[in-house]
Amino acid sequence: MANIIKQKMMALAGDQAVAYAAKQSDVDVVAAYPITPQTIIVEKFSEYVANGEVETEFVCTESEHSAMSASLAASVTGARAFTATASAGLALMHEMLFVTSGCRAPVVMAIANRALSAPLNIHGDHSDSMAQRDSGWIQMYAENSQEAYDSIIQAFKIGEDSNVLLPVMVGLDGFTLSHTLENVETLSDEVVQQFIGIRKIPNVLTHEDKQSPFRLDPKNPMTMGPIALQNYYFEFKRQQEEAMKNALEAIQDVNKNYGDLTGRKYGNGLVDAYNLKDAEVAAICLGSTAGTMKTIVDKLRKEGIKAGLLRIRTFRPFPSKAIKSALRNVKAIAVMDKSMSFGGNGGPAYHEIRHVLYDSESKPFIVNYIYGLGGRDTSPTQLRTIYDDLQQILKNQTIEEPIKYLGLRE
Amino acid sequence: MTAKEWKFTSKDIANKPDLFLSGHRACAGCAPATVLKLVMKATRGPTIVTEATGCMEVVSSIYPYTSWATPWLHTAFETAAANASGIEAALKIMKKKGRISKEHVDVIAIAGDGGTFDIGLQALSGAVERGHDFLFLLYDNEAYMNTGIQRSGGTPHGAATTTSPAGRAVPGKLEYKKPLADIMIAHDMEYVATASPYYWRDLITKVRKGLEVEGPAFLHVFAPCPRGWRSNPAKSIEYSKLAVETCVFPVWEAVNGEYKLSIPSKVLSLAPQRKKPVSDYLKGQGRFRHMFKPENKALLEEVQRITDKRWQKLLKKCNLP
Amino acid sequence: MTSKYKGWKEIAPAGVCSKSSRTFLTGDWKTYTPILDLEKCIRCLICVMFCPDGAIIWVPDKKDIEFDMSFCKGCGICANECPTKAIEMKLE
Q: What is the ipTM of this complex?
């Protein structure tokens, strides 16, 4: 690890770390609208603009819908665009999320994950971004502020990759990460900009049968966002799926290169395995919960229990292969969901994990825990019961309750 | 070349290459297509167009074909002004950073009445408040024609549409057309105007003036739709003339909030006897057919009354008697 | 199965259009055809201004207008607006 670059420790809340990363990424356009618990990001960025610390056009839109529309338009004009939102704001963007991915605009967006109304709730869970999991965006979830900072920088590199060209959302748990001060190792502006580089615009075939830069350029007129009917729409959707597959590679490459530079790697970039190699029982979670879960795993290991944890860092594209491989020896699995899929028999992560393991040879037991909705605190004692349950399942060789609500009053 | 210098003679215009190309799939006799063709003749240099979902967006971009010889972006129904904001912001900063040439690029956002009066109004208001440098061009065919002739905030009183049909109990649309250009003036915009394609020179001059404004400009263009109005396709341009001659759609401009009638309407203010009755404009349009039934006489009178009232109000704003 | 349409690997991303609509002829839509009486035409170009389909072209070299029947949809706006009634719409 001798070649790791020198870094500066800063005390930053998650939102501040995100804003700082965006500042260092030489973003051209930020179009955003305030919403708790994301607001610190746009406030902080506004300060950078007000103090002349960034060369960025800051467009303070009148809604999240327009924030995404403006970000998308700026991106297809050739600019590097960044925005941030949460909860209802992300829901309002819903329509434009599909347009952005469909237009192959590599906008980067931070999501300070928060519950959806009603009832109104400003606290953290994953309902907002999970509801957008099929919008064609790459989705990453950070475990801590450090990772939020690192992931924003990486997101530009991943999304702008010419084999990818997809928008990226980076989730950080509302309040738990967004508002909590942590020590964050930061790079210098130069190093960040060198790592990402100036946005490269690939050439594509246009209507004069020539290769032109993939952006709105008066010198090379391009028609973007047309109507494609039964004869072509399907082909464009298939292209997006291919881009998602390519993103699996790009995320791993960027994670490795960034790791070589900084000394920080997040698993293989897709999933982060903790004590999984010989684990018999394992939990799977996203985001900040992993921090607490790791301490529980450590405790269990000391007690001689073969416990492990898998954190899904990249939820879209869903890293099926990496997950299957990481879980190949596990006998009982608990999937933790911080959101619900009403009437869908369990949360979204549970669905996907079960889907991935359907054709696995080991056929492990898989159960689901819905927890932490609306920012409900889940204590280490409660979390530990997950592993206790898994051991019980192994002992009885049967699942009594496949879907449980952790920390819910009956 | 400024609007004053360019003569806009018919030969000037005919000689200038089209940016809105033939082969689009608008209905025969579509005045919005004429409007777009003329508007694009008024450009003064590199121009990026962003368009809301609607008839003109659909007919000009059926993949793999495009009718646009200039960069063009469509994203959604309500987003024309928000897209223009993003494009303008991107051009500004990329120029500053030396990533693109310093040459000025005009941005035009185009939307129909649905994308302006209704679903796109919030984004438009926001973009204007922020002061982005762009021209918002509204082609007003007075209903949601693309989805099959549903009423919008721009549909006039009495008109029959598929969501305001002329039935036995309700004779067409009960509500009145939203005075949108006035709403835009209330944003303290430097340039707001209305135009009609029959007065093509006036239209083109106004487009050019709007582009020359450094900041947002708004142009409301009347655009008859033979399909939705149930009218003779050959008469689309004629209706755009009659709407002005009856004062149903006066043409004017407001520079920094100072209203001024444009010549075709000014003539009517000077010679009120030349102002035609609204029935001259309404007759022949299927959407108003029911108004000529004896039982709907009051409705016809009401359209005349509201037209006169709005015309008087406009004259007052123009400081005319 | 062969198709006249291209596959997903062969086309540009995001629906970037690959053909000018000038290669999509709309002339076969019409039921009426404009017939120009050159004697009556005063070359005011009003018809060029108003044609929604760009199907009437001013040819400066010839100092004359030409109809491009491959795009004319036969709407009759030109005939209706012609100040000298030099254009007549004939049923095809």
A: 0.97
